[in-house]
What we know:
The protein is of the alpha+beta class. Helix content is 27%, strand content 35%. Strand 3 (62-66) and strand 4 form a beta hairpin.
Amino acid sequence: METEQASRTKLWTLYRPHIEPVTGFGHIYALAGWLDEQSLPGAAPSDWIVDVFLDSIGNGHFSYTHNAGGPDEWTLVIAPANRD
């Protein structure tokens, strides 16, 4: 299942307080590079976030919040880009 989900196109959105949400689109392996480009404060390693997503696929939706309630809070939401 991991390989099947990883090959499908995903839509991801990055939410940060007081900043307009930013959206990306592509295969999940492209997410790590995209996250690195965002210069997130105190970011968890981007490869780790991709690995956690692949390990917890479930229905293809995923959410990760960094530093919830803290000054460096940000949330990443991943969803399938199609209905397959």
